[in-house]
Hints:
The protein is of the alpha+beta class. The protein has 9 helices and 32 strands.
Amino acid sequence: MYRLAPIATLLLAWPSVGPAQDPLIRIDVNLVQVDAVVTDSANKHVSNLKAEDFQVLQDDKLQTITNFSYIASGISPPVITPSPSNARSALPPPQLPLPAAGSVRRMFALVVDDLGLSFENVAHVRDALRKFVNREMQAGDLVAIVRTSAGMGALQRFTADPRILNAAIDHIKFTFGRVAVSSFAPAFAPSDVTRFDAIDQSVDEFRSDMLMAGTVGALRYVIDGLHDMPGRKAVVLFSESVALPEASLRGLTDAADRAAVVIHTIDPRGLQTFYDVRDTDPNPQVQVRREAQMFESQQGLAGLAEATGGRFIQNNNRLDEALHEVVEDSDGYYLIGYRPDSATFAKDGSALYHRVQVRVRSAGLRVRSRSGFLGDSDTARDAPLQGSAALLHALTSPFSSGDIHVQLTTLFNQTADRRSNLSALLHIDAGDVRFDVQPDGSRKAGLEVVAMTFGADGNAAGRTDRIFNLDLNASQYAAALSRGMVYVMNQPVPTAGAYQMRVALRDRGSDRIGAANEFIEVPDLTNKRLAVSSLLLRLDARQRPSGANPGAGLLESIASDNDPATSAAFRFFHPGDSLYYEYFVFNAQTGADHAADLEVQTRLFRDGNLVYTGQPMIPAVAGDANTGRLLAGGHLTLAHEFLSGDYVLQVILTDKLAKQKYRTTSQAIDFAVAAH
């Protein structure tokens, strides 16, 4: 059941993408812009050079620099300290806030070429990615984990939320692709290499070519998906083997140039001895052949990085350090432009390739830039998408749209008949919706809403399409303007796991778009381990008659499609406000007295930093623990001197009767505070 109901208006919103903040690479008849990174002998960025310190050549002809600037990411490099283990904490801090489109400083698509990785290196890549996500990501970073074998749904996970990224990393598994179980499978002496006849070799080469096409297709898809995103973007490719024909290489690099994408490549094999302990006969000729095989397999990786101004990292046994090196490369770059001559862009439609060289005059400095481009002028930006196409684009974008200000709250709960359920509450700013005045003074509007749930593998787990025709009288319209509207959707989920809820809406009168997305984890309640529903945070406690069944509270009403409390989707508070939060506890263990023994602690984060830790206390619960379902809650008062900002409330629950390994869990919810 779905409904729109007036509720308190939302003042938090993400600003839209601003073209003035997008230093895009341009290639047209009036201007060619290239980006360049300059480093010193210690491989540190040099950021204080001027235009006269550079030379730009196109097809060996010196060009006059007409545009010049240095673009800094604005992010301080993190201090990396060794960790005793790579295991994730049982209670990680809540996610970094999703960056608004205009505040994204660095964008990384971490592409795992599982079609070109051996079994032994898949685990190493997983570990390096997990260290980056848990130790190096900062506010302003937007990251995607993409597997070349995962299909087009993989890009759905572009996010700033470490939970989504860790879920994606967990799904990286070995795939029988272009590389064997080992980078160098047990070798045979030359006289014994008779395993494959000519037909077998032909079939094997054909399969390898097909799988290489899958890798190239995934890279092109990622590059195209990054085209309209702001600033300079980085694609980091983990692979052991990339074989690119010249045409494919130029096609990829030209697309990367026009999308302002730099491609870094990392060979996870590290430093090799070319000797396998499983070899029964360590023949020197075998080692020579392996060395030649590795050199050949790296040519495509090196060429792809060089052509786009990226780095190729090899012979490094510490993949986390290798990834750190290429991440640091995104700290800043020079943007250099010149006016091409009239012959650069052929008028007959034939696009010739033009080589570009960027040189730095100062001794001891090195410069990396793109190697060239096709003489095909960038077409004018496409006309804005309209109708269903615009709605689908908003649904798959990593940003929340600012055309119509929306906020999504996704709540997990279990219904009375023990079914797992997601309740999606979408708050809509009615002031952004076009209402047409009718002769009787009423106002009419139409909203087209699409909601999709994606699983951890990036594939769609469910979709709902609805059209709402609104007809409001004068008082209803005034209430909608002052308090906003809410769209409610209850959707059962068949299995436990990580999900991402995405909702997009289109105002049919103005064609304006709004979108939001949120990550949520659905625990497995059948394993009898401690679990907590989503938190519901609002002003004051729900007024109930004395002795009322708490099981009929707000969480229950949402799950059963009754009218939700207005502040469930309204989390904008002021200093001095008294807040109430509630949640369900599942599978709490009971003692001889058939009672649970629980302990709760709250933590408060402001802009990603821990600012408050409450004392452990016994929570107030209601219900029968023997049913496996308890309702709990608590109060939180914001002091009058409370600072404005974005906050996350985390509730940590401990079951003292459960086994040590399963006795603690947590949930979190975000909110905002602003002075009156």
